[in-house]
Write a structure and sequence with these properties.
single chain, 4 helices, nine-stranded antiparallel β-sheet, Immunoglobulin-like, 34% strand
């Protein structure tokens, strides 16, 4: 029998598929957004895939800072086949206090706590059961607030619009070409940010040399 920890790890790795693209493309915090910079894809979307004997559909939304760094990733996972499970996951950067977990609140409703289940070197994942009640609240709601606590014991609420959620959840998944287009736009966004950061760093180094 598979342990809960092993099961949580396996599910989290599956969910990391699209989120991992973002995590791998994090840019330095000092990079500044420029006016003609490519825009990162935003909003709710569904991606489906098959891994071994399991069909996986993931309705997700990835929130990023202007620098391209991931702020919060949301996944509503449904697995069918050898494994049958529905999971709600929230991914945040590392440097968070674990005991408080992540608070989840729809509009002005009652907040619930998501427990952390797994941390990678660049992000941590909290998880809860994906219930019909939770999905219904997302469809009826207008805004989702997800609150983690950083290492300075400060709450970091992130507000996510629920506009477009119902269409993504009930509608068909993105085609492979659409997914590739999103990834291409993401890569362009990250590449431009890295280019701007390298240029600014060189300018600072040149100024420092001139001052000596």
């Amino acid at each position: 029998m598979t342990s809960l920890k092993t099961d949580a790890y396996s599910i989290s790795v599956m969910a990391a598929g699209v989120l991992g693209v973002l995590a791998a493309g994090l840019v330095p915090a000092g990079a500044q957004q420029q006016q003609q910079q490519p825009q990162i894809p935003k909003g709710w979307f569904k991606a489906c895939a098959k891994q071994e004997d399991v069909d996986i559909c993931n309705v997700q939304n990835i929130m990023t800072a202007s620098t391209g760094q991931m702020v919060t990733g949301i996944s509503l996972l449904e697995l069918k086949g050898k494994v049958n499970r529905k999971v709600f996951q929230v991914t945040v950067p590392t440097g968070r206090l674990v005991p408080p977990g992540i608070g989840l609140q729809v509009d002005n409703g009652k907040a619930q706590k998501l427990e952390y289940v797994l941390c990678f070197p660049d992000r941590c994942i909290a998880e809860a059961q994906l219930s019909d009640t939770l999905v219904a609240s997302f469809k009826k709601g207008t805004e989702l607030t997800l609150t983690s606590v950083n290492s300075q014991n400060q709450a970091n609420p992130v507000k996510v619009s629920l506009a477009g959620f119902t269409g993504a959840f009930d509608g068909p998944p993105l085609q492979q070409s659409d997914i590739e287009d999103r990834q291409k736009k993401l890569q362009e966004f990250v590449a431009k940010n890295n280019e701007d950061f390298a240029k600014k760093l060189k300018e600072e180094q040149d100024k420092a040399k001139a001052a000596n």
